[in-house]
Amino acid sequence: MVHFGKKLKALRQKRGMTLVSLASQAGITKGYLSKIEYSANPPTFSTLQSLAGALETDVGQFLAEKPPAAVSRNLEIHQPDEGHWQASHGLGGYRFLSLLGAHRGKYMSPFLMRVPPGSTHYFKHDGEELLFVLDGDIELEYEGKTHPLRPGASAYLDSRIRHRFHNRTKADAQLLAVNFAYRRF
Fold first, then answer.
1. Rounded-to-integer distance, Cα 84 and Cα 60, Å
2. Which residues of 61-76 are buried (b: 16+ CB within 10 A; e: fewer)?
3. Are the C-beta atoms of 81 and 65 separated by less than 8 Å?
4. Which of 32, 82, 102, 124 would bridge 67 by S-S if both were Cys, CB 3.0 to 4.6 A apart?
């Protein structure tokens, strides 16, 4: 498994950015960025999205150990044995798998997301989000209300508004999450 922080640091240095400049552009503190660069695990999706924007890259490229090869300029195929599930430690323990890595010039970032029993911390990030429940029962907390979702259910939301998930069962729930960013990478 590729060490997330080392990959981030190498990309920052390749772009000629200091800790201070990247932290400022990503809207986080220099201390938090330094902590991320020493961690093998990625931060929250919202922080990933901020870092990707500041580095003019894509979230999927941060997470792919070996990005899937684009079949053509307009097509990328992701096989089930490609990629690695990333854990978001300290944030409810959810895990995610990027379904896109090499394709450039896109607005959407598709991920598989596994939510274990319990509650995630709140998320808030730029863009819009489509959720589709693949397996398990989950609750989406959004705008102060809890919305139950079962397999086959979907939700479309403005992800700039705080939201989180509750899994009140004993098994992981799995979702397809597609995030739409307002700018291309």
1. 11
2. bbbbeebbeeeeeeeb
3. no
4. 102
pLDDT tens readout for residues 1-33 = 567 788 889 888 988 999 999 999 988 899 999
Can you spell out the DSSP letters for 154-169? EEEEETTS-EEEEE-S
> Tell me, what DSSP letter sits at residue 120?
-
Residues 59, 47: contact at Cβ < 8 Å?
no
Q: Which domains does the chain have, with CATH numbers?
A: 4-180 (2.60.120.10)
Q: Letter for the amino acid at 81?
A: D
Distance, CA of 40 to CA of 130 (rounded, Å): 28
Q: Are 176 and 112 in contact (CB under 8 A)?
A: yes
Task: Please work out, in degrees rounded to the nearest 5, the angle formed at the alpha carbon of residue 140 by the alpha carbons of 139 and 145.
Answer: 105
Residue pair 175/123 in contact (Cβ under 8 Å)? The answer is no
